[in-house]
């Protein structure tokens, strides 16, 4: 398999009609299974006047009510430890992950053995698509504590790579591992990939010359799909960067970037993707930006049918230049991170696109959203490179103009900090502070 282009060529290059036939078959199965085995779904379907037999085509999915994080929290622990959404007995569950709880109460995501094995098979597919082979040494630098990304190292082992279970060790320890064990691939978050490269340089290590990393996989933040951010990290490490997307509520591994780096291929044999209007919930055509709604087509421990992810993006169902036919998703940001200034929707990723592409600054930034005279405004903080002699006022004006050109609204202020003054992230970066009531 080492010289093949695809992990599973037949599946990854299925014609669109074949993908949709497979999805419809699995959709009917999971809806019937959920209705028969989940207290929540039977109640929800009955309340909506829906029976499993009413779903005869993919378009019929719109008849089914949405679920979201609130649904999970409200049903978790009700009636049993795993809650009303669960469709299997606890004795059939072999693994649970948990959300970070950043948007509320942490929610458990249970997996049967089949759920878990299928998840890792998809992970192997995504790793292979990013160029991992059985000759690689792979360091897994993700949190293992209940985080759904932790077990994905097994997908790399299934592929045959030599795996180093590093986890979230201190940067100096991880750099020691990179120097001594010479891994060729690492997976972390975009923020930490940048921070680790900076830390290496401060310790006299050139990540591009002194280390063996040739591929970087990132997830957890939109940075990997922001061209300016991706290129900055790639230049720092002299390595190719590939963005992954996963969500514990659905399936763990969901989508990943191929060598073309035009969107993320979603595993459509296991996940059905929709885009809906964030206000009305109505389905949007392919290519139009809205909230991504995902349905797990095979996960049985806790079925997730029409889950509103809170991620904003769009879908492209055209075949990719890499030859793969599974849809690609493009994620702009999180609905709960979006703020509106002068009627313009702004995501932190819009600001990051500008900041990462400008000269004379480190690329680190913070955003503050606040109210003034009953209107929302935003301010940004950035760091000036230590060797730059550009006047702060000139630099602030240049950044303000670039932000207005990109997002349509200039910031209320741009504060210039010294290199190293802004916080660095070792996991997911928090770059937005909302001070509004």
Layout of helices and strands, plus pairs?
Blueprint: H1 9-12, H2 16-37, H3 39-47, H4 69-75, E1 93-98, E2 108-112, H5 113-129, E3 137-140, H6 153-159, E4 162-164, H7 171-181, E5 185-188, H8 190-202, E6 215-218, H9 227-237, E7 240-247, E8 252-256, E9 264-266, E10 271-276, E11 290-296, E12 307-316, E13 328-334, E14 339-341, E15 344-346, H10 348-356, E16 361-372, E17 375-384, H11 392-407, E18 413-418, E19 432-434
Parallel strand pairs: 3-4, 3-5, 5-6, 6-7, 16-19, 17-18
Antiparallel strand pairs: 1-2, 7-8, 8-9, 9-13, 10-11, 11-12, 12-13, 14-15, 16-17
Task: Describe this entry's structure for a reader.
With 437 residues, the protein is α/β, with parallel strands linked by helices. It folds into two domains: 1-332, Rossmann fold (3-Layer(aba) Sandwich), CATH 3.40.50.12780; 338-434, GMP Synthetase, Chain A, domain 3 (2-Layer Sandwich), CATH 3.30.300.30. Helix content is 29%, strand content 25%. It has helices at 9-12, 16-37, 39-47, 69-75, 113-129, 153-159, 171-181, 190-202, 227-237, 348-356, 392-407; strands at residues 93-98, 108-112, 137-140, 162-164, 185-188, 215-218, 240-247, 252-256, 264-266, 271-276, 290-296, 307-316, 328-334, 339-341, 344-346, 361-372, 375-384, 413-418, 432-434. The strands form four sheets. It has an eleven-stranded mixed β-sheet. α2 (16-37) packs across α3 (39-47) and α10 crosses α11 (392-407). The longest helix has 22 residues, at 16-37. The radius of gyration is 22 Å and the shape is globular. It starts with 8 loop residues before the first helix and ends with a strand. The model has no long low-confidence stretch (mean pLDDT 92).
């Amino acid at each position: 398999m080492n010289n093949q282009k695809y992990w599973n060529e037949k599946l990854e290059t299925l014609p669109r009609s074949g993908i949709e036939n497979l999805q419809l078959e699995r959709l009917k199965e999971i809806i019937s299974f959920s209705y028969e085995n989940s207290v929540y779904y039977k109640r929800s379907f009955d309340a909506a006047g829906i029976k499993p037999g009413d779903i005869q085509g993919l378009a019929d999915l719109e008849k089914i009510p949405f679920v979201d994080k609130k649904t999970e929290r409200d049903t978790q622990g009700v009636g049993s430890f795993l809650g009303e959404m669960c469709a299997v007995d606890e004795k059939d569950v072999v693994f649970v992950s948990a959300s970070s709880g950043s948007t509320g109460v942490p929610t458990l995501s249970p997996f049967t053995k089949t759920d878990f094995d299928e998840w890792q098979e998809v992970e192997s597919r995504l790793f292979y698509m990013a160029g991992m082979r059985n000759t690689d040494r792979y360091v897994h630098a993700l949190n293992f504590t209940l985080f759904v990304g932790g077990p994905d190292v097994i997908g790399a082992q299934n592929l045959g790579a030599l795996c180093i279970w590093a986890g979230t060790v201190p940067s100096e320890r991880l750099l020691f591992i990179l120097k001594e064990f010479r891994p060729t691939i690492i997976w972390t978050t975009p923020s930490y990939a940048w921070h680790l490269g900076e830390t290496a340089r401060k310790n006299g290590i050139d990540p591009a010359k002194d280390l063996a990393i040739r591929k970087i996989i990132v997830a957890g933040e939109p940075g990997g799909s922001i061209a300016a951010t991706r290129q900055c990290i790639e230049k720092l490490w002299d390595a190719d960067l590939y963005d992954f997307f996963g969500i514990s509520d659905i399936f763990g591994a969901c989508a990943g970037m191929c060598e073309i780096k035009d969107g993320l291929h979603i595993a459509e044999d296991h996940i059905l993707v929709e885009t809906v209007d964030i206000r009305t919930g109505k389905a949007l055509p392919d290519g139009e930006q809205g909230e991504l709604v995902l349905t797990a087509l095979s996960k049985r421990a806790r079925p997730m049918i029409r889950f509103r992810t809170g991620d904003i993006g769009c879908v492209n169902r055209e075949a990719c230049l890499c030859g793969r036919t599974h849809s690609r998703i493009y994620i702009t940001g999180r609905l709960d991170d979006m703020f509106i200034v002068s009627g313009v929707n702004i995501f932190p990723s819009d600001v990051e696109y500008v900041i990462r592409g400008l000269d004379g600054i480190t690329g680190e930034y913070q955003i503050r959203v606040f109210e003034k005279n009953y209107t929302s405004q935003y301010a940004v903080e950035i760091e000036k490179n230590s060797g730059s002699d550009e006047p702060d006022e000139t630099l602030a004006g240049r950044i303000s103009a670039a932000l207005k050109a990109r997002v349509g609204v200039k910031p209320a202020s741009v504060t210039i900090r010294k290199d190293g003054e802004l916080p660095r992230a070792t996991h997911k970066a928090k770059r937005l502070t909302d001070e509004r009531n």
